[in-house]
Amino acid sequence: MSKRDELIAKYATDLKEKCKIAPDMDLLTKVTIGCGPSIYNADSSTVSGTDSKELATVKNNFLIKKLGLKDSADLDKAIASVINTYGQSNKNKYRAVVYYMLAKHFKKESVYK
Known about the structure:
- The mean pLDDT is 96.
- The chain is globular and about 40 Å long.
- It has 5 helices and no strands.
- Helix 1 crosses helix 2 (25-34) and helix 4 (73-86) packs across helix 5 (95-105).
- It has helices spanning 3-17, 25-34, 52-66, 73-86, 95-105.
C-alpha cells in the first residue's frame, strides 16, 4: 500500500469516526490527489480551526479558486460548520477531509470528475 493510499484510509476513518459521515471513496481519493504534496507535510496536511489566516487560505485557495464559488458570508459559515462537525477539540483536522466536506457541502463534486 502506497503512502497516499494509507493517508486516504486514515482520512476515511476520520470521516466515519469523527464526522459520522460515510465517505465516497472515489471523491475522497480525488480530493486527496488534488491536495498535492501538501498531504505529506505535517504542517500543511492539517487545517487549524482557530487560525484566521489558515481559514482565509481555505476560503480563497479552495472555495473561491478551486471550486469557483463567489466570496460571501456563506463560505465562512460553511467552513465554521465543517470545523464544528470535525470537532473543535480535534487537533488534527486533515486538509483533505475538510476539503472533502466542503466540496460535498456546496455540491461541487463535479469539480473532481
